[in-house]
């Protein structure tokens, strides 16, 4: 496969998915491009050709592809375009997310040829998998990218690519969101940064101290983006979440890779 361009596509509220995606894609020969699906707003449809490749990365929320990301992926259209799938997860489990991402992209005309499940710093409890992807992770991600690049050279354009096998079950597990409320404290200066950056526009456009808890997906982007550090989850609630995740997230998980 003579790949002319590799496009890193990601939904990455806290930046970890973007980092992992670019580490992998950067090792594959061809012109590099990026497409960030995180910001809110209307988007055009994006079309990719057979001599291109895409790396599509999303975080895992409750073992699934985030609904907001799944909806935005419908704007991507491939013409037998090779696709590398990648999910990042907070050191617990990625469950059905990789399989779900594979099926979404197949419906959009892409040919999955490789996949990765990458542990990353937990978006809510940052002490879990803190700093990941770390130095060891980055080395593995780059090595995987080089292996994918070599695989592309082995596959001719008329070669029938086999079915990429990834873990997951159908029907997909149910996910009803995270019952956490993010609030703005008195240090909020009303700059509007959180309003502009919220992926699902859950923050009032006229008052950043008002958040629609039904729309909020607890992606923590507003918390990371706030220049005044005014947005946060109640400390007692956060401690309860930390204690709940402590056992299931204690053991270091390693990245998993798959290829046709």
Shape descriptor:
globular
Radius of gyration: 19 Å
What value does the average pLDDT take? 94
Q: Considering the protein shown, what is the CATH homologous superfamily of the largest domain?
A: Flavodoxin domain
Helix-residue proportion: 25-40%
Order of helices and strands: EHEEEHEEHEHEHHEHE
The number of helices is 7
Query: What is the number of strand segments?
Result: 10
The unreliable regions are none
Main beta sheet strand tally, sense and closure: 6 strands, mixed
Query: Which percent band covers the strand fraction?
Result: 15-25%
Spatial sequence of strands, sheet with the most strands? 2-1-4-6-7-10
Measure the end-to-end span. Answer: 14 Å
The secondary structure category is alpha/beta
The total domain count is 2
What's the CATH first level of the largest domain?
Alpha Beta
Report the CATH topology name of the largest domain.
Rossmann fold
């Amino acid at each position: 496969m003579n790949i002319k361009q590799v496009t890193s596509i990601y939904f990455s509220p806290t930046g970890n998915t973007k980092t992992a995606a670019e580490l992998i894609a950067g090792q594959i020969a061809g012109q590099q491009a990026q497409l960030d699906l995180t910001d809110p707003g209307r988007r055009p449809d994006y079309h990719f050709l057979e001599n291109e490749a895409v790396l599509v990365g999303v975080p895992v929320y409750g073992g699934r592809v985030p609904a907001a990301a799944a909806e935005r992926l419908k704007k991507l259209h491939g013409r037998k375009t090779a696709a590398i799938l990648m999910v990042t997860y907070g050191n617990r489990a990625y469950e059905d997310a990789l399989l779900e991402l594979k099926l979404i992209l197949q419906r959009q005309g892409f040919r999955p040829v490789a996949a990765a499940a990458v542990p990353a710093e937990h978006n809510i409890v940052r002490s879990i998998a803190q700093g990941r992807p770390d130095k060891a992770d980055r080395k593995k991600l780059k090595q995987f990218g080089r292996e994918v690049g070599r695989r592309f050279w082995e596959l001719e354009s008329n070669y029938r690519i086999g079915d990429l096998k990834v873990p997951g079950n159908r029907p997909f597990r149910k996910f009803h969101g995270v019952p956490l409320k993010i609030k703005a404290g008195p240090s909020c200066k009303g700059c509007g940064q959180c309003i502009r950056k919220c992926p699902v526009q859950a923050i009032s456009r006229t008052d950043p101290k008002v958040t629609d808890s039904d729309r909020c997906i607890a992606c923590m982007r507003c918390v990371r983006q706030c220049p005044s550090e005014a947005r946060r989850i109640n400390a007692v609630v956060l401690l309860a979440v930390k204690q709940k995740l402590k056992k299931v997230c204690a053991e270091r998980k390693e990245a998993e890779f798959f290829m046709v």
